Amino acid sequence: MEGQGTDSASEAPLANWRNDFSKMFQYYLDRSTPHPLQRWLGALAVAMIYVLRVYYVQGFYVISYGLGIYVLNLLIGFLSPKDDPELEVLDGASLPMKGSDEFKPFIRRLPEFRFWYSITKAFIVAFVLTFFSMLDVPVFWPILLCYWGVLFVLTMKRQILHMIKYKYVPFTVGKQRYTGKKSAGSSGSRRD
């Protein structure tokens, strides 16, 4: 009986610490949401630290290759629409194909925040994995790099053809403004 009481008592501080850490982590994630430039600069810094680590130790190319495949997969999710007409039979909700179709905003399959968060986590995990020498598999890295490059080109070609076929652009430049319909007979300003 006494053994059970001490187990739960020793687990309580750990559970409290984990709960507090989770709340604090979520708080800072929520605070970073409206600052995409700073978030991406931080992700770039984490990526550069990883690249420097791999360059310094001259190894871990298989981990880098796996990281590259994962980032490519995330990029495809970021560039793809949430409701893909090729993947699902939709109930009338699809991308507009003609000018007369109703405007529907582009909604990503993988939102920008989750894309950033996943990439940052991936680089951190890959960085931690570089400290385990058993994961440094000796390979001829130029072959991995060429294979990844071919995979990237083929995947992007397919994605760009998909964008052209269904007439969508996953990027917005500036804020869209409604200008209203101009009638053919109006001269711009009316005086009564």
Structural commentary:
Belongs to the RER1 family. The protein is mainly alpha-helical and 192 residues long. It has one domain (16-166). It is built from five helices and no strands. The protein has helices at 2-32, 36-57, 61-79, 112-129, 141-166. α3 runs antiparallel to α4. It is flat. The termini are far apart.
Keywords:
mainly alpha, membrane, single chain, 5 helices, 192 residues, transmembrane, Rer1, Protein RER1
Domain count, please report it: 1
What's the end-to-end separation, in Å? Answer: 93 Å
Strand runs, count: 0
Structural class: mainly alpha
**Proportion in β-strands:** under 5%
Point out poorly predicted stretches.
Answer: none
Rg, alpha carbons: 25 Å
Give average pLDDT, whole number: 82
Shape: flat
Largest sheet: none
Measured as a percent range, the helix fraction is 55-70%
Q: What count of helical segments does DSSP give? A: 5
Order of helices and strands: HHHHH
In short:
With 192 residues, this protein is mainly alpha-helical.
Task: Give the SSE layout.
Elements: H1 2-32, H2 36-57, H3 61-79, H4 112-129, H5 141-166
